[in-house]
Amino acid sequence: MYPPRFRYEAPRSLDEAIGLLHDGGGEAKVLAGGQSLIPLLKLRFASPDLLVDINGIAGLDYHQLDPDGTIRVGALCRHADLEHSTLLPGKQPVMAAAAPLIADPIVRNRGTLVGSLCHADPQGDWASVVTALGGHVVAQGPGGRRTIPVADFVSGPFQNALAYDEIAVEAVIPAPRGELAGGYLKLERRVGDFATAGVAVAVERSGGSVSRAGIALTGVGSSTINATDAAQALVGGALSADRIAQAADLAAQAAQPRTDHRGSADFKRQIVRTFVVRLLTRVADSEEKAA
Ligand SMILES: Cc1cc2nc3c(=O)[nH]c(=O)nc-3n(C[C@H](O)[C@H](O)[C@H](O)COP(=O)(O)OP(=O)(O)OC[C@H]3O[C@@H](n4cnc5c(N)ncnc54)[C@H](O)[C@@H]3O)c2cc1C
Q1: CB 281 within 8 A of CB 245
Q2: Ligand 1 midpoint to CA 36 (Å)
Q3: 268: which strand partners?
Q4: What's 4's DSSP letter?
Q5: Distance from Cα 121 to the centre of ligand 1, integer Å
Q6: What is the DSSP-derived secondary structure letter of residue 200?
Q7: pLDDT tens digits, residue range 247-262?
Q8: Would you give the distance in Å from CA 145 to the centre of its chain?
């Protein structure tokens, strides 16, 4: 199907883009990688008057590691940039694990992490990863910049917390306060598919004890699920088998899967439990080997 008719603008600066969104009065949409927006237009699920293409704005295609360990991902950093990053391996195991699992190589060449957060698809992988890592989004509008924790930014299925005249300029992953470990596991029917279920786990440890943990779930609810009780069960002690089993049970309870063509609700809940155990056991085993 052809998209409905729209006006197209390709601003060269953020201020110009924000001005266009403001003047659009809620009938304008940002175009980043277009990997979700263009299908929505073609299916006529969205019909904006104006597309504001931000691809011509210089300086948004970065991902960088600050000296303190904070990671910043600009609005035009593609999934493929993160997949082939030389910064992430060894420093950011959760993002490094997720990047090659997003869609297929063609989508990864154009789609962006920030666009994925903005799209807020319950089956979007990055929202779980950034939630588990306690990340936030920096939004810029006519009044300046503000910071929104990603757990609040993704405000519902296909809904985000941006005002109509704001652009998400970067996603920020805070520096870990200890040694960071974890990963991302995704069950898909075939390579390139959206998740049947996905689990992101991030664990920060110092002196053998977990100081912070994050667990977030993909594709098992009407929105990304921040499994805070499961994560909290890990904090304050070592990663023992009992704690791992408790966290896995709590994560499975937090999941709200529906039976569909990808599998039954029970099956998906069991996948969540299995993935949490697998990811945390891997972390615990690597610690034992290093000791
Ligand atoms: C075949 C296929 C398979 C896919 N499989 C997966 C998968 O397995 N896992 C997965 O997570 N995703 C998957 N996707 C989605 C893909 O990852 C998209 O790239 C991503 O969801 C959106 O990023 P984008 O840059 O393409 O955003 P766009 O499509 O350009 O925009 C998406 C939405 O976000 C808004 N937006 C984008 N950037 C900004 C910004 N900086 N500020 C404000 N608003 C913004 C747009 O207005 C639009 O509403 C798949 C897509 C396709 C086509």
Answers
A1: no
A2: 4
A3: none
A4: P
A5: 9
A6: E
A7: 999 999 999 999 999 9
A8: 21
